[in-house]
Amino acid sequence: MADPANTKLGRMLLDEITPVVMVLRTPLVEESCRKNGFSLIEMLAPFSNFNNIDVPVRTASDQPYRLRKFRLRLFYGSEVRQPNIEAAKERLKEVITFSGDKDISDLCSDPPDIESLIAISKQEMVPSWFQNFNKELIDVVAFSEHEAFDHPVACLVAVSSKDKDPIDKFVDLFNTNQLPPLLNDGAMDPKILKYFLLVHDNQDGMLEKASGILTEMRSAFGANDCRLLCINSSTDGAEEHQENLWASYKASISNSKQYGCFLNADDIEELRSTMHDFSSKHIIPHMELKIRVLNQQISATRRGFRNQIRNLWWRKGKDDAPENANGPMYTFSSIESQIRVLGDYAFMLRDYELALSNYRLISTDYKLDKAWKHYAGVQEMMGLAYFMLDQSRKDAEYCMENAFSTYLKIGPSGGRNATRCGIWWAEMLKARDQFKDAAGVYFRIPGEEPLHSAVMLEQASYCFLLSTPTMLRKYGFHLVLSGDLYRKCDQTKHAIRTYRGALSVFKGTTWRHIRDHVHFHIGKWYAFLGMFDEAIKHVLEVLPCGHQTKATQELFLREFFRIIQETGKTYEVLRLQLPVINFPLIKVVFEDHRTYASTAASSVRESLWQSLEEDMIPSLSVMKTNWLESQQKVLPKKYKESNVCVAGEAIKVDISFRNPLQIPISISNVSLICKHSAEFDETESDANGFLIDHQNDKELRAVSNSGEFSLDTSLFTLSEIDISMRGGETILVQLTVTPKIEGSLKVVGVRWKLSGSVVGICNFNSDIIKKKVTKGKKKPKQPVKDNLQFLVIKSLPRLEGIIDNFPKTVYAGDLRRLTLELRNPSKIVVKNLKMKISHPRYLIIADQEVMNSEFPTCLRKQESSSESCTQVDAARAASSLFVFPETTAISSETPLKWPLWFRAAAAGSISLYITIYYEMEDESSVITYRTLRMHYNLEVLPSLEVSFWTSPCSSKLQEFLVRMDVINRTSSESFQIQQLSCVGDQWELVLLQPVESVSPLEVLISGQALSCFFKLKNRRIRQSTEENTSSLATSGRADVKLVDGDSRGLYDTSISPFILFHHHERVHQERQEQGHGGTVDFILISESWSGSDAGLSRTTEVFSHHTCHCRVASKSPIWWSMNGPRSVRHDFSAAFCEINLSMTVYNSSEDVVSVRIVTLDYTPATNSATSAASVSGNEVGWHDTSQLSEIKVTSDVIGSRGGKAPSTDSVSPFIWSGTSSTRFNLEPFSSAQVPLQICVFSPGTLDLSNYILYWNLVSSSDGGHDVDGPKVSSGTCQGHSYHVAVLQKE
Amino acid sequence: MIVCIAVVGHQNNPLYIQSFTEADDALKLHHIVHCSLDVVDERVNNPKKSGPTLNETFLGLLYPTENYKVYGYLTNTKVKFILVTTDLDVRDADVRNFFRRFHAAYVDAVSNPFHVPGKKITSKVFAERVSAIVKSFGLSSAV
């Protein structure tokens, strides 16, 4: 450790605990000194400080030592008294205020980083005025009676040579009633060393007179104690001094020119020698002498064992003495005072050993006397002596602590002493690098004034910063505490300084509660000082405080607006965090060759459009490079990266604002900041980035200054939006900029006005630049695509398209005619229109003739309807790209109208995308074609649910029973079922019931279900099976009308909308597995029904429901039917009855089938179960056809049959005759007749179902081509029931 | 009475801080908790002071102020628990017991798969459990 004398405390002690010289002077002396600009003391001050006095000193011990540094403290006699508390307070406050004003310039700079703070050396970091302040604080308790080191050691009596009767003056000056109370009330020895100084002003001449007085003085006061001091030898008063001797002693006066202007070198030399003489020849020897005398005296009375005992005994006796707060009064002659004086003198002469031993001696006495203040003072000095001796740190600390707590104990009178003691103690700890303990001491120093506490707390905080390890958090905390106290004392600048220090701790931490508090208060205080820029900067930090309570947020916001109002102007804040802009959500919509009919269309993913437009526009790669490469000379290279937009067409920027607060805020005048340059920049792309940034900054500034857009309106127009946001709300705002002339446009940022007073600016570019920097490290060559830079080209035609009355919500199956209307507002004609629709199942393009015909009626069957158009339509439906006729060119006057067919195919939400391609007439443009993208969202509600069940008719070949179930799934809508149609020529549909019974109410109201039965016939098979073909012509209709009494014709399902939609439905409803035989497609057409009367007034809506691929065949490839008589009359008395039957078997598969018919004489029990199982297993939801189509009796029969085991006792009423098994092969699509015969023994109704058909495919190729489905290659069929009534012939 | 309970993450970021006073002294308690982290750091970095037991999680009295006593607890994942109490005579055993239960509650809270480590604890269950523990602390010391 360093020499204690070189530490801060050591220097402080060497400065402070030094002999005091009381100066007494006449007013004329003072007057002479005033000529130089200062008082006598000030004049002498530089010379009473000796850096190398080199005086041998011999105190109590015999060993002399040399004193190097020595200092005298000079005080006027009137000042040697306890200072006035109030005045001292004022002075302390002054010190603080002064220092606060001094570093106001620093307040504007950014607070230093905490890391760099630590790195700075101690001296720089801790404000230097603390030292002054501490000194002033210590001086407050100067000249106390219980301490001797402030007691004057000597008295310097100065009289001017001009004074009349100088000898008398000398005597008068030392008159007792002028002397300080210390001397008078007996606290110190009034017999004091006196030194007589005759001050002679050389300007007054008369040196001879002065010498005369001096000799007089010498005779009167003794030769050694008198001296003549000549000053003001310089006559012109322009004496320059190389080093300013007085500067460091009178800090408050900086201009040193006139000080000492009348003192020439001789004068200064004389001053120096006078003071040197005074201290080395008088004061020090005097002190030495006194020390020796006192030491002897004390040794005699107090040292030694006997004296100790006696002393103790004597002290004990005084125990009963009444307690006095200050302890008993010790006069200078008391032994205690003498010991104290001895100690203090020894201390002042650096004989710390002697001082310590005396202090120790007296401290017990004081303690026993309960003279606490004295005791504490002695303890304090002991601590300091220990420190200066640099031994026993523990003792030193113990003494200081003891002194400190004792001072505190004696109440308010000791408070200031405690402060001084604390400051010394803390300095001592700091000197030993025990910063943490020092901080604790500073913290404990009593603050009678909040201001003092504030300074102490601040000092404590620096201790925490200096301690190892650094206790940053405590540093911050104490700074905050100190700042609060400063603020309480109206020391705002200091408060800001401390808070800023604290901010460096809390910056970047997640302790937002504290950080907000600090920021907010700094901001408030800056505003208080009128430094609004700084204030706003700090308050801005706390504005987006979503985590705070609502009240706090309101407080912050209110304060912010108050500050803004005080500034009196609208502020522009570059990074206003209210509202917060969500950056990734910014979306830019602009139109180059792609144009959008609506905003909804622009929000659709680009890839979706691209895939839709793929085969419509010139191929993608060509498109990308084509116009760019061909226009290379016109376009600078860099615009490859920038986007293209058209003059007069708006660029839309979507920005999402988020209100982080819980309180509502209102935002007005939200608009974009844009930069437009009319000419292409010719600089290279590398330098370009920098150049643009530079320009942006300028532009931003210009905009900020003017705050108006008047300059820019000729180049582009901006939209302005006002929004008000509720707490925590996020609002998506669409801002537009419309460039007016060609050039390049850059969207720089966005600006808004918060609550009509603050303008917030957010610069998009800065964020992009940031990214650029980070990205640039990786690939410096690659310029990052800047999507806010646009190349504005001259205006182009832009088609506007709309579909009239496009429904938002429809019921499934709704069939409508819509009109697409295309307009071209510009003069330039466009051509080569093409169109594509994403969902042809929902929307298809109609023929233009449809425009002219009336909608629902045109769907009905016309007399002259040609069936040939079906094929064409199907071909057209296959390709979804529609090319408008060549003649279609749209000019500005006539909008193009084109009909579209719309059908809500399935329930659910659907997005329809339509894109229209067109080319410009004008070939010179950069863009030769454009696309119009339209997007519609549609919700389709479920309406009718239609399902069909078909089952082959057991009695006839190629006839099917069809059951249609219709359920109205809507909540309120009613439908009128109009017609059911089968698609295709080969089918013919007949209603089984009368029309009236189908729907007695004519309408199907919501929730209602309806079932009806149809017979379906296959005409082709009929023809091939050589049935009578005559019926085909008469009854062969694929449509069945389900409404009675409707005079209007049937809907023609073979014309354009139906057949086209049906095509798409078929594609959509494609089934994976296809069984043997054909499938059938049904179209159910219904109309909306809204009451009996209203139905006429409103246009009827037509609904079509397409059900495709209804399986008509069962699983087996064969069909058969039993033919024979239904009733036979026979006389059983004669013989048994033989009935001849024939079975027609038809092979509906494409393979050769081998069929075996096995007749059984018993009823197979398990068959009904297995067949049912096999049917239901493969065809979910289908009913066992035999059960359904036949009368209920059969099911009972089957049921009872199933219950019975094959019993031997129940004899069948008939037997099969002939072979029990017949096998034959059937060619594809051919039929065969098998004769059968039964013998009946008794009359009754017979069920001839006890036969089984076994079939298997015998085609050679069946293993190869049936890989796709689980096609069964063989199977078993249970016979159909066939009832024959045999009656007894009468 | 327990005034404040805090959970501080290993980067000294506040994870959970809950005061149990009616007064509006959140800022003060924040400061106290924040400051006590310095002491925690000091204890951790000077193992000779932390006593003979190596794996001791209980840090003891950190920070006696005029009105409060601050106790600390350090988990193995360097998460700190800070307890601020106004009781001036608290038995260490009580505090230990409190921290043990509090630790259990914390472990349960962060074991939630939806909890993001290092983020604030927002679990309501945790808050309820903690306040129950805090209440029971007052009771047990009163008995």
Compact summary:
Chain A is an alpha+beta fold. In chain A, 37% of the residues lie in helices and 26% in strands.
Description:
The complex is a heterodimer of chains A (1290) and B (143). With 1290 residues, chain A is an alpha+beta fold. Among the domains of chain A are: 18-82 and 154-319, no CATH class; 580-590 and 649-793, Immunoglobulin-like; 944-1111, Immunoglobulin-like; 1118-1288, Sandwich (Immunoglobulin-like). Chain A is 37% helix and 26% strand. In chain A, strands 22, 24, 26, 28, 33, 36, 37 and 38 form an 8-stranded antiparallel β-sheet that branches. In chain A, strands 10, 13, 15, 17, 19, 20 and 21 form a 7-stranded mixed β-sheet that branches. In chain A, strands 12, 23, 25, 27, 29 and 30 form a 6-stranded mixed β-sheet that branches. In chain A, strand 31 (944-952) and strand 32 form a beta hairpin. About 13% of the residues of chain A have low confidence. Chain B has 143 residues and is an alpha+beta fold. Chain B has one domain (2-142): Beta-Lactamase (2-Layer Sandwich). In chain B, 41% of the residues lie in helices and 20% in strands. Chain B contains 3 helices and 5 strands; from the N terminus they run ββαβββαα. Chain B has helices at 26-45, 92-110, 124-142; strands at residues 2-8, 14-19, 58-61, 69-74, 80-85. Chain B has a 5-stranded antiparallel β-sheet, sandwiched between helices. The mean pLDDT of chain B is 82. Chain A binds chain B through residues 464, 469, 471-474, 476-477, 480, 509-511, 513-514, 517, and chain B through 12-14, 26-27, 30-31, 34-35, 37-38, 41-42, 45.
Element layout with pairings:
The complex is a heterodimer of chains A (1290) and B (143).
Chain A (H helix, E strand, L loop, with lengths): L7 H9 L3 E6 L1 H8 L5 H5 L4 E2 L4 E3 L7 E3 L2 E2 L1 E4 L8 H18 L1 H4 L6 H6 L2 H4 L3 H12 L11 E9 L5 H8 L7 H4 L8 E9 L5 H15 L4 E6 L33 H37 L3 H13 L17 H14 L3 H18 L2 H18 L3 H17 L5 H17 L3 H10 L5 H17 L5 H17 L3 H15 L5 H18 L2 H11 L7 H18 L3 E3 L6 E10 L4 E3 L2 H4 L3 H8 L6 H11 L12 E4 L4 E8 L6 E13 L7 H22 L9 E3 L2 E5 L4 E10 L3 E12 L3 E6 H15 L10 E5 L6 E5 L4 E3 L2 E10 L6 E8 L5 E3 L9 H4 L10 H10 L2 E3 L12 E8 L4 E13 L8 E13 L2 E9 L6 E10 L5 E9 L4 E5 L3 H4 L10 E10 H6 L5 H6 L3 E3 L14 H13 L10 E11 L4 H4 L4 E10 L6 E6 L3 E4 L6 E11 L5 E7 L5 H14 ...
Helix pairs in contact in A: 4-8, 8-18, 12-14, 14-15, 15-16, 16-17, 16-18, 17-18, 18-19, 19-20, 20-21, 21-22, 22-23, 23-24, 24-25, 32-36, 38-40
Chain B lengths: L1 E7 L5 E6 L6 H20 L12 E4 L7 E6 L5 E6 L6 H19 L13 H19 L1
Antiparallel strand pairs in B: 1-2, 1-5, 3-4, 4-5
Protein name (chain B): Trafficking protein particle complex subunit
Family (chain B): Belongs to the TRAPP small subunits family. Sedlin subfamily.
Subunit structure (chain B): Part of the multisubunit transport protein particle (TRAPP) complex.
